[in-house]
Amino acid sequence: MFPASEQRVSEQADKKVDAHIQKLALARFTGVQELLCAIFFMSGIWGFFEAWWLGLGLWVAGGIYFSRVTSSYETQIKGELNQRGKE
Asked: Which of 1, 30, 52, 68 is least surrounded by Cβ atoms within 10 Å, i.e. has the fewest?
């Protein structure tokens, strides 16, 4: 459909747009959300001294929380951009 060079440019542009959206999503984190991520991380370190599986579990839980919050903010930002594009 598109020549290879145009397709490569659009892929690079999509990657740059996604990276910028991810930065904007991280900027929307509230203080409580940042604190909760820090608590998961620090508790994971403490948990590793108690039992390795406890620390690992806390880090996994923190990673899941971080990715879910980030992806919800990314979805909000993409929705806002789509809404502005329709105006």
From this structure: 1
